[in-house]
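Key result, reporting period 2: structure in, sequence out.
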C-alpha cells in the first residue's frame, strides 16, 4: 500500500494544475482577507471586534471551496481524460485500493495547504484590522474549521470526479452542490423547506467556519452532516468505479 501512496503522491504533485489550484486557493484566502479587512478598518469609527475580524478574514473560504473542489475533480478525472486510468488499474488491479490511496493522499495535501492558507488569511486580517482583544481559542477553531471545510469540499469534488468521470460535468456538479443549490434550498417555503435548507450540503458544512448555529445544527454537527453528503457521493463513485470499465 505504501508504494500506491507514493505513486499517487508523485502523480498529484507532478501535475501543474495541482500547484496552480493550490496557489489560487491560498491567494483567494489571503487576498480577500486583506481587501475586506482593509476596507472595514478604513470605514470603522471604532475598533473592529475580534469575531468580526476573524469572520472577514475567512470570507474567501466560499470561493476557495470551489478551487479545492476543482482540484478534487482533477485528481481523478484527468486520468480518465488522458486514458492514464488504464495504466493505473493495470498497476493496481484492486480498484478500491487505488481510490483509497487517491483519497488519503489528497486529504493529506489538502489539510496541510488549507491549514496554512487559513492561518495566513486570519493572520493577515487580524494584522490589518487590529482588534483590541483576541481569543486564541477562537482563532484556532476558525482556522481548523476552514481547513476541514475546504478539505471536505475537495473530497466532494474527488467523489464527483469518480462518479461523473468527465471534468467539466463534475466541476459543474460541484459548483451546483457547493454554491447554487444551497442558495436555492434557502428559498423553499414552510418549515420543511427551512429544515431542508439547514441540512443541505454547504449550508450545514460552512457552520464550522463561522462558528454559528443555524437553529438545528451547531458547527460540528453541521460539519458532520456535510461529511455524510460527501461520503454518499464518494461511495457512489466507488461503487460505479468498481462496476464500470475503465
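The corresponding designed sequence is given below.
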Amino acid at each position: 500500500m505504501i508504494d500506491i501512496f507514493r505513486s499517487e503522491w508523485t502523480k498529484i504533485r507532478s501535475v501543474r494544475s495541482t500547484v496552480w489550484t493550490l496557489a489560487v486557493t491560498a491567494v483567494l484566502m489571503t487576498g480577500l482577507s486583506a481587501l475586506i479587512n482593509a476596507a472595514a478598518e478604513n470605514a470603522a469609527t471604532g475598533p473592529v471586534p475580534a469575531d468580526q475580524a476573524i469572520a472577514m478574514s475567512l470570507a474567501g473560504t466560499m470561493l476557495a471551496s470551489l478551487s479545492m473542489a476543482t482540484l478534487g475533480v482533477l485528481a481523478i478525472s484527468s486520468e480518465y481524460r488522458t486514458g492514464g486510468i488504464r495504466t493505473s488499474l493495470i498497476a493496481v488491479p484492486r480498484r478500491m485500493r487505488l481510490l483509497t490511496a487517491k483519497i488519503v493522499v489528497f486529504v493529506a495535501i489538502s489539510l496541510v495547504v488549507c491549514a496554512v492558507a487559513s492561518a495566513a488569511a486570519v493572520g493577515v486580517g487580524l494584522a490589518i484590522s487590529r482588534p483590541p482583544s483576541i481569543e486564541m481559542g477562537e482563532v484556532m477553531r476558525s482556522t481548523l474549521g476552514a481547513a476541514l471545510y475546504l478539505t471536505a469540499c475537495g473530497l466532494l469534488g474527488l467523489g464527483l470526479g469518480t462518479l461523473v468521470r468527465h471534468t467539466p460535468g463534475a466541476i459543474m456538479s460541484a459548483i451546483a452542490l457547493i454554491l447554487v443549490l444551497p442558495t436555492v434550498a434557502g428559498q423553499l417555503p414552510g418549515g420543511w423547506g427551512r429544515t431542508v435548507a439547514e441540512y443541505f450540503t454547504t449550508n450545514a458544512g460552512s457552520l464550522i467556519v463561522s462558528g454559528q448555529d443555524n437553529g438545528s445544527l451547531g458547527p460540528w454537527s453541521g460539519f458532520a452532516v456535510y461529511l455524510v453528503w460527501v461520503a454518499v457521493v464518494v461511495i457512489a463513485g466507488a461503487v460505479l468505479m468498481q462496476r464500470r470499465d475503465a
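The two ends are 21 Å apart (CA to CA). The mean pLDDT is 87. This case is discussed further under Risks and Mitigation.
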